[in-house]
Amino acid sequence: MSSRADRFEELYERYCDRALSDAERAEFESLMADPEMRRHFVELTRLDTQLADEARIAQLTPATLKKPRAARKPSASPNFFGWSLAATVVLAIALFLAFRSKPAQVVATVTTVQGQPAIQRGSEQLAASAGLKLLSGDIVITRSAELLTCQFFNDPTRVDVLAESSLTFAISPETKRLELNSGTLSADVSPQPANSPILVKTPDAEARIVGTKFTVSVEEQQTTLRVDEGHVRMKRLKDSAEVDVKTGSFAVSSKSSAPLAAIAIPAVTGFSLVDADTGKPLPAFTPIPPGIDIVVADLPTLRLLVAPIYSGTVGSIRYELEGKSIVLSKPPFWGSTEHVRNVLKLDSKSNARYALKATPFSGPNGSGLAGATYTLNGNIIVKH
After folding, report:
1. Is residue 200 located within the same domain as residue 227?
2. pTM for the full model?
3. How many helices (H) and strands (E) does the chain have?
């Protein structure tokens, strides 16, 4: 039997048990659109009816079976079981059609799209557009440089599905679950009832969201949860280990046995200028005030280092200026004299404007979780 038929039988069993989720219901209805699957549905229903009849016969007591034929009531018509079976099959199909006609639950509305994200709805694929209603069971698919933003129905919760992602909305009146199979989602969740949180599930982990701003990413067989505001409980599915991730922290769940822990998000909050010969910071430039004009003639030396002011778990920092960049992976991440001269243009013969950027990462060589980029703007003043 094909895997498609196997899946249909699996869903049929759950249908009979009235245990289909919204996503499974949509899949079942999609399969029932196939005439072959409808015939298979009738066959399965007929088999279930026959088994039920046999079970009822088997439950007759021995005393009943031993009654003389003459004492029994007139037997049913030879067509009784045939008519009973046909009626059962018709009833089953009618019940399915009634079940199928139940309107799908609207769970969110698309507010913004970038590029051409797609919505997979059963066997149908729709082009996403602002105003489109998302139904439970819908899968949002984005490719490179694409973005989809939506807002929950009757709830100000906002969800951003970032590039190269696949997100399923598996939401019912009982459960609010987002299934992130790949990529990244970022959300601003309004306060939810404590007994009815939003669940974000990935291949590696599950996060319980009551109300917070967070980002979840799935890549390289691991899940990274970043919390910018609020409190999220993260569970690693492999061993059910749990950790509370609070504002300004992140956690990584993977297939490794490393402890599941919350770690401070790496952050750069400013820069200082340091005398390269003495290793001492220049008091007037610790930190460098935003927008300050650096007057070259007033500097005690041009042999300077750029020292980042940072916090959290920092494994490397990437400096950027005018499209050029350098990554430093060795604390204290001071830029070299040559780098500073090139970045701040201290050898310039005329006034120059600069915008120095720094992005911290939790791992070496620009790997791991990226913190927010800090940018310092100002002018280099050359007196003639």
Report:
1. yes
2. 0.64
3. 6, 24
